[in-house]
Amino acid sequence: MLRSSAVTAGFALALTLVATPAIAHGGPGGSSAPESLYAQAKAQAAATTQPDPGMIEALQRDLGISGAEARARLVNEAAASKVEPVFSRQLGDRFAGAWLTGPTAELVVATNDSTQVATILKAGAQAKLVKHSLATLDAAKAHLDGLSGSAPKSIPSWYVDLQSNSVVVLARDTAEAQGFVDGSGLDASLVRVEASTEDPRALYDVRGGDAYYMGGRCSVGFSVTRTGSQGGFVTAGHCGRVGTATQGYNRVAQGTFRGSSFPGNDYAWVEVNSNWTPVGVVKGSGSTLLPVNGSTQRAVGSSICRSGSTTGYHCGTIQQHNTSVTYPEGTITGVTRTTVCAEPGDSGGSYISGDQAQGVTSGGSGNCTSGGTTYHQPVNEILSTYGLTLAGGGTPPPTGCSGYQNTYNGSLTSNQNAYQPGTGGYTAAAGTHRICLDGPNGTDYDAYLQRLSGSTWTTVAQGTSPNPDEAFTYNGTAGTYRVRVHAYSGSGSYTLGLTRP
C-alpha cells in the first residue's frame, strides 16, 4: 500500500498532464510551491471556459442560482472532470467516488481509508470518509444486474449512490423489492431500498416519413395534435381501418386508427399511445429533419418533395390539383398529381413543399429507378375532417406586435432558440430598442436582447415571464444587437416585433 506522502506526490505528477503550469508563490528565501491539484485545474478552467450567455440564464432560472454562481459552477465542473480521474487512479481501491455539491458545484472525494483524508484535503477537494470503496459498490450493482431477469416489475431502477455510499434500489412495492434484495445474497449494508413512484418507459418521436406496421408497412404522413387526445399522425386510408393497431418503426406498440376513408378518399389518422410524441418534422435527405410550419397549398408547377419508409426522400413538381384517380379498389377524388416517384411501403408518407405540409402519399405508377407519377391526398382536408392540427405549426403565425419597425416570423419546438434578424444581428445607433414577442397560446416563449462585445454576445435586456408574450424596451449605446427567441415550453409559430434606434 502506498503511503499518504507517496499518493500526494502522484497527484502532483499527474497534474502536469492535465493542467497549466503551477502558479508560483513566494516563500521563505524566495522559494515557491505549486498550488493544489484542484486549484490548478480551476485556474485552467477559468481561463478557457467561455459559457454561452443563454446557458447562464438557463442555469439561473432552472437551478435557482445567481449568475456568479452559475459561472463558478461551470468552471468547477470543468475542473472536476479533469481531476476526478487523477483521484481515482491514485487512490485505487481506496477511492469511493467523487461528486459535486452546492450551488457552485464544489468537489467532494470519498475514501474508505482514513489515512487518505488529509491527502484529499491537501489536493484542494472536500473529503468524506465512508465504509465501502467504489469498486465494492460497483461489484454489488453488477451482481444485481446479473439477477435482472428475476427482478420484480415494481423495481424501475437501481444504481450506485455515491453520497449515501450504497446501492439504491427504487421500488413501487418496497416489500417486494426487499425480498429481491434479501434473496440476492448481497451484504445488507451495501443495498438500500427506497420507495419510488417512477414508472419509466422508452419514449419515441413520431416523424413524417418514418415506417409503421399494421400487418404490412406504410409511412407516417404528418404528426398532429387533437384536443383531448394524445395526438398522432395522418396517413393513407388504404393502410388501415378504424380500430387497426399499429407498431412504430422499431416494432414497439404505437397506436390505433381512429379515422379512415378509402376508396372515395384515401386518408386516415392514427392516435398514438403515451410512449410516442408527435413532432412537427419530416425526414429529409440523410439524417436531416425538416420543420413543418404550416399547410398552405402550393401552386401547380411548384416543387414538392416526398418522404417515405421505402425510398426515402425524393422531389418533383406539382402537375394538377383536384384530380380523380382510379385504382382497382375504386376511384379517389380531389387528390394532387405530381412527378415525384414512390414505391410500395411509401404509402401515407409526407409530401412537403418548403416548410409547408401538402399531403399524404396515396398511390401512383412507376418507381424510383425509372421514374413515375404519384398522387397525394391534400393534408388540409384530413385536418378539417378529423379536427386535427399539425404539430409544430399548423396555424398561421400570430398577428400581434403590430406597429413595430420590423416584424419577423418563425417557428420553434420546445427548448429551441432562434435569432432575429439573424445570428449576425443588426447595427443600431444609441437610443431605445423596442421588442415585442407574440408566441403561441398555451406556451412559454421568452425574448433576450443581446449586444455583441468583442466576439461574445451578452444579454442586456430580457422578457421572461411565464407567458407566450413579452414586451420590453432597452436604452443602449451604439453597437451590434440581436434578439434571441427561446421556446421555454411548448411549440409553434411566433411573431417578433422590433423597433431599433
From TrEMBL:
Keywords annotated in UniProt: Disulfide bond, Hydrolase, Protease, Serine protease, Signal, Zymogen
Record-linked InterPro entries: Alpha-lytic_protease_prodomain, Pept_S1_alpha_lytic, Pept_S1A_streptogrisin, Peptidase_S1_PA, Peptidase_S1_PA_chymotrypsin, Streptogrisin_prodomain
Any one Pfam family match given in the protein's UniProt record, by short name: Pro_Al_protease
Domain Peptidase S1A alpha-lytic prodomain: 132-188
GO molecular function annotation: serine-type endopeptidase activity
Endpoints of the signal sequence: 1-24
Highest rank taxon of the organism: Bacteria
Family: Belongs to the peptidase S1 family.
Name by which UniProt lists this protein: Peptidase S1A alpha-lytic prodomain domain-containing protein
Lineage of producing organism: Bacteria, Bacillati, Actinomycetota, Actinomycetes, Streptosporangiales
Gene Ontology annotations for the cellular component aspect, listed alphabetically: extracellular region
